Amino acid sequence: MFFLLSCAEQQGNSIVNISERNRLFLIPSVEPERLQNVMPSSWHRLERLTSAEEQTFLEENISTLLQIESTLWDNEYFSIYREQAGKDTFYRILLTTEYNPDYKSSAIQFRQLLMHRNTILLQSWYTTVTDNPTPGFFRTFYSLDIISGNDGAKGVLLTRMTVAVRNRNLYNWSSTASRRNGRLFGNNHSRFFSMYNLLNRNLSSFLRIDASDCLVDPAVPMRFSLQNAFDNDPSTSFVANSTDNSLIIDLGFMNHFDIRQIAIINGYAQSSDAYFRYNRVKEIVAVTDGQFPWVTDTDILFDPNMTAPAIPLGVWLLEDNTLNHQFINIEAPVRIRVSDVFSGSVYNFTAIAELNFFTVNGWLFNDINQ
C-alpha cells in the first residue's frame, strides 16, 4: 500500500494525510498550557514534538495509526504529545473531529490514546453524554494520568467523574447540573493499572478506588476529582462535596495486600492560604476486617458510613498547618475512616492533597523518600 505523509493547508493549519484513505490527519499540537481545562493533573508534564520528531513518530507507528484510521467513519484529526516518567517515554494522541480544536470550550470532546513502546496501553474519551434512567442525562469526564516512581512509571490511573444534568446541551451543561451545598458535585472513581499488567495486556487486573462525590468546577471539571490524591503534585487536591461534609475513599484490591503505612499530605496544599480555606483531616480511626472472612478483595479506607461491627485498631490525629507528608503505621489489613476535621476558614469541603500506601511490595503510587 502507498502511504501519503504529505502536507496540505486547511484553514491555516498544516495537516498531514496518514494514508490514501484520507480519514486521519495530523495537525499541529497546541501549547500544553491550553490543555489545563481538560488535563488539570497532567498538562504541565506534556511536551510538544518538533516537526522532525512528529515525522519520526509517524514512520515508527504507521501501522498503529492505520489501525486507528480503519475504525473511523468520518474525518478525524490528531495531535501528539510526549510525557517522560523517569526512564519511560509515553506519547499521548488526542483525536478530535475538529481541525482546530478549542480545548478551553465547555463543549470540547476528544479521544485520548496513551502509547508506550509503540503500543496503545489505554484509551478513553475526555467527555461523553449518556441517558439517565430518570429524566435527564449524565455528563461524564475522564482523566488518564501516569503515576511515576523514582525510576520510571508505576502505572496509569484512569479516573471517571460523572455529573447529572437535565439537558444534552454541551455548552451550558453546568447550568442544569445537580448541586449540593450550593456547588456542583460529581460521582468519581479511579482504576489504577500497573505497568506490568499494562505491558502484558492484562487489563482485567486493576486497583479500583471509589470515593465520595467531589466538588466540580464548571470551567475545569476535574480540578477537584479523585486523580489529584495520587498524582504526586501537592498543588492539586481531591476535594469532597458530600452530604455531611466528610471525605470517603474506598481502596479495593484485585489481589490482597497488607498495608504497612499510610502517607498523607493533608488539606488543599497548593499554598498556605489555600490550605486554611478548606477542611483538613483531623482524626482517622482504623478497624480490622479480619472478622469478616468473605471480605478478601477489598480494604475500605476513609469510610464514615461503616455500620458493621469491627475491632478498633487505633485512632490517629493528624497535625494541622503542615504541607508535608504525615505517616501512619498500620500492621494489619484495615478499614479506615475520617472521624473529625479541622474546619476551613472559607469552604466546608474536606480536601486531601496526596495519599499513598506502603505495602510489602513498596509504595503503591509515587515513591516517597523518607
Describe the structure.
A hairpin with a 4-residue loop joins strand 10 and strand 11 (153-165). It contains 4 helices and 25 strands. It has 370 residues and is mainly beta. Strands 9, 10, 11, 12, 13, 14, 15, 17 and 20 form a 9-stranded antiparallel sheet that branches. Strands 1, 2, 3, 4, 5, 6, 7 and 8 form an 8-stranded mixed sheet that branches. Strands 16, 18, 22, 24 and 25 form a 5-stranded antiparallel sheet that branches. The protein has helices at residues 51-60, 62-70, 195-199, 272-277, and strands spanning 7-10, 13-17, 24-26, 46-48, 76-85, 88-96, 111-116, 119-125, 127-131, 137-148, 153-165, 179-180, 183-194, 207-211, 214-215, 238-239, 249-252, 259-266, 280-288, 298-301, 311-317, 326-329, 334-342, 351-359, 362-363. The chain has a domain at 1-125. 8% of the residues lie in helices and 42% in strands.
Order of helices and strands: EEEEHHEEEEEEEEEHEEEEEHEEEEEEE
How far do the termini sit from each other?
A: 56 Å
Radius of gyration: 22 Å
SS class: mainly beta
How many β-strands, per DSSP? Answer: 25
Helix content: under 10%
Number of separate helices? 4
Low-confidence segments, given as residue ranges, are 1-12, 290-308
Question: Biggest sheet, in brief?
Answer: 9 strands, antiparallel
What's the overall geometry? Answer: globular
Strand content: 35-45%
What's the pLDDT, averaged over the residues? Answer: 85
